[in-house]
Each structure stands twice: as structure tokens, then as C-alpha cells.
Amino acid sequence: VAEAVETMDGWYCLHDLRQIDWTSWKLAPVEEREAALAEFQALLAKWDEVEQSRNGSHAVYSILGHKADFIMMILRPTMKELEEVELAFSKSKLAEFTTPAYSYVSVVELSKYMTKEGEDPEQNPEVQARLKPRLPKWEHICFYPMDKRRSGNDNWYSLPMEDRKKLMYEHGMTGRKYAGRIRQIITGSMGFDDWEWSVTLFAHDSLDIKKLVYEMRFDEVSARYGEFGAFYVGNLLDRDAIPAYLHV
Ligand code: 76R
């Protein structure tokens, strides 16, 4: 029997993707739109305070294509606090003009594949910072869920630990080439959602997203064992940019 790798788990994560009902938004009286906008801005101001006091983080991006109009990626220390954020938005005026497009529940995860003998990574402040990250506010986001394959000779979960370590090492080396250009947040979602992990990439240059994902397809761990869900890609939606984004 293959041995499970130990994980370190940080903040809980909700990827909340919404579609805007532009028709009813346009039909709404201007006072109603203004009230919805002001309430949303106040909600974002609250989330900013939480982020500043390091009790969570969030990022809001507009999404291209038909799959969603915008994403709110939220991190909180507990599932309870995460739910409160989701509820606060759902009860808001703006939410009346949106429909859920997709959502994903997970927890920030680091595995111990790369841990050296005698090391306790949980005591490492850098590790702690990565488990409770301030989400970057870079120009672009890319989010997708994924699994590791479990079929026939390509079963990740029956590979010996040593083989998985080697494959994850190669994966990490490819990733490192993008240091400073891509920030990745891996969250684990076994038992929480329909896929096993979510991948969120932040980039200044959207092409770096494509290049990294492409290059990784050739790493054995992705080529042989990676299965991917839908991809969502978008642009930063700053608090200041939201009135223009919603202006009709
Ligand atoms: O934690 C670390 O940085 C050490 C190395 C590392 C691990 C353990 C690492 C590095 N990742 C790890 C784990 Mn990753 N990662 C993905 C994807 O599209 C694809 O082909 C796969 C989606 C990307 C783009 C990516 C990027 N990684 C994982 C896991 C958990 C696996 C498990 O436990 O079995 C998954 C699912 C996953 C998927 N990874 C990096 C990156 C990048 C850019 C790095 C380098 C980080 C850096 O050194 O700056």
C-alpha cells in the first residue's frame, strides 16, 4: 500500500464565481444601482480591514468568456468565517443581479514531499506565511480545479512515496522557472468539493499563465497523472475600478 503524504493546511478558501444579469441591472432605477454599488463597496472595505489585520485575504477579478463575469476568491481561518462572507454577499443588493456561475470550497495546502529528514516545516515562518497568504493583486488570475488520475497503470494513489517525490520535485523545478512572474496557490479539496485540488495562478503578464501551464503539461506528473476541470481567466478588478465596471 502506498503511503499518504502529510499535508499542512492553512486558511479555508472559497472561489465564488458570479454571472451578472446585465438586463435586469440596466432596467434597475439608478438609485437602486447606486445603493447596490455602495453596499458592495462597503463590504469590500470590510474585507480589506480583515486582510490588513491578517485574519484573511481576498481578491476580486473580472472573468473573460461566458463561464462567469467575476470571481471573488476569499480566504478565512475557519469554514464558519468563510460562510459568513458568502452569506453577506448573497444577502446584498448586488447579489440580486447575479447568479452563481461556479464555486469551489478548499483549504490552502502544502505537502511534505520536499521535507528533509529531521525538519519540521510547520515551524518555518515562510511556510506559515504561505499557508495564510495575502493574495497578490496582480493583473491576472487563472483558476482551475484538478485531480490526479486513478486508472489502470496510471494511478497516482498507488505509486510509492519515492516515485511521487521524484515527480513532484521535477514539477517544482518547472514551477521555479516562473519565480517572480507567477504566484501559485494550491488548495486541497478532498472531501470538500468535486475535484481534489484547485490551482490559482496570479500573473502580471497573461502569457506567463499560458506558458507555465503548457510547459507543465510535459512534466510527467501532469502528462501522465493530471486531469483538469474548467479554466477561468481574468483581469484584476480593483475596488476603485468597480463603479466603471458596473456602469451601464
Ligand atoms: O511547495 C512548493 O513550492 C514545493 C514544490 C511544489 C509542490 C509540492 C510545487 C511548486 N507545487 C507543489 C504541489 Mn505545484 N502547481 C500545480 C499546477 O497545470 C498543471 O499541470 C498543474 C497545476 C501548477 C500550474 C502549479 C504551479 N502543485 C502541487 C500539487 C499538490 C500535489 C500533491 O500533493 O500530490 C498540485 C495539484 C500542484 C499543481 N507548483 C510549484 C507550481 C509552481 C509555479 C511551483 C513553483 C513554486 C516556486 O518555487 O516558486
Could you please describe the fold and organization of this structure?
With 248 residues, the chain is α+β, with helices and mostly antiparallel strands. Helices cover 35% and strands 31% of the residues. It is built from 8 helices and 11 strands. It has helices spanning 22-27, 30-52, 79-90, 125-131, 161-176, 206-217, 220-225, 242-246; strands at 7-20, 57-63, 70-76, 98-111, 140-148, 150-151, 154-155, 182-188, 197-203, 226-228, 232-236. An 8-stranded antiparallel β-barrel has the order 1-3-2-11-5-9-8-4, surrounded by 4 helices. Strands 6-7 form a two-stranded antiparallel ribbon. β2 (57-63) and β3 form a beta hairpin. Ligand 76R binds at residues 5, 110-111, 113-114, 146, 148, 168, 171-172, 175-176, 178-179, 182, 184, 186, 197, 199, 201, 212-213, 216-217, 222, 226. It catalyses: Fe-coproporphyrin III + 2 H2O2 + 2 H(+) = heme b + 2 CO2 + 4 H2O; Fe-coproporphyrin III + H2O2 + H(+) = harderoheme III + CO2 + 2 H2O; harderoheme III + H2O2 + H(+) = heme b + CO2 + 2 H2O. One of its GO terms (molecular function) is heme binding. This is Coproheme decarboxylase.
